[in-house]
Amino acid sequence: MTLLTVENLEAGYETGQVLFGVDLVVEESELVSLLGRNGAGKTTTLRSVAGAAEPTVLGGEITFGSEQLAGVAPYSIAQRGLSFVPEARRCFPRLTVRENIRLAINHASDPKDLETVLDFFPELSEMREKQARNMSGGEQQMLAIARALAANPQLMLLDEPFEGLAPYIVRRIEDIIAEINDQQGIAVLLVEQNVAAAVAVADRHYILDEGRIVESVSTTQLRENEEMRQRYLGV
Ligand code: ATP
């Protein structure tokens, strides 16, 4: 069954339009990536779906399950089962791991319990009384994903989850995303510059170029098509 449908999405900022008719779908339990060069509009697409204050959605339709999301407030979108992990990995720096996850649990309409969440993150479980500000970038990214998982979503949106992380942490977070998807059946739409990591974790890939989806390909198709990778991704 289709979980998310984005049709002809147009969006932009005061400085100008960025998306010129984005079309994509995410099926239930699917793990999909959205790739593209710097400035292609990947973050803008995710933020439009999550209902963020910026960008402004200028046209098109965003359907989640059977509901229209356009004009729905972000907290309300989250309560309907869509969790967004922004690029900045927003955690509360002075709160501990446990307190950060607790807050996410308290704000959700049908949350998971703390231990179920921590089962996916043994590293965090061991540092549950540590303040987020004293954790590494990779640990903070895990905490941001743990907070999203606590809301018990049907779909997780991840904005560049691997950005700025050391290769061994990238592999660890790839594994966590795959496990959450596999064991909990949570669909994932992730935006990435790191094509290798996206290919390692997602089954299907959209390529965004200048605010439009130009390709929808399987991992095998992307691996075998160097010309496509060069043209749209520069790798
Ligand atoms: P990146 O990896 O660089 O974030 P991206 O594909 O995610 O790339 P977006 O962040 O969606 O791209 O940006 C698309 C365009 O929108 C860029 O030209 C960018 O400068 C512009 N843009 C992004 N955020 C804003 C903003 N808050 N105000 C004005 N313009 C913005």
UniProtKB/TrEMBL annotation:
**SUPFAM superfamilies per the record?**
P-loop containing nucleoside triphosphate hydrolases
Query: Would the keyword ATP-binding be found if you checked this record's keyword annotation?
Result: yes
The record's InterPro entries line, in alphabetical order, gives: AAA+_ATPase, ABC_transporter-like_ATP-bd, ABC_transporter-like_CS, BCAA_Transport_ATP-bd_LivF, P-loop_NTPase
Which is an annotated GO molecular function term of this record?
ATP binding
Please report the stretch or stretches of sequence annotated as the ABC transporter domain: 4-235
The GO biological-process annotations, alphabetized, read as: amino acid transport
Q: Which UniProt keywords apply?
A: Amino-acid transport, ATP-binding, Nucleotide-binding, Transport
Q: What family, per the record?
A: Belongs to the ABC transporter superfamily.
Protein name as annotated? ABC transporter ATP-binding protein
Native organism is Halovenus rubra
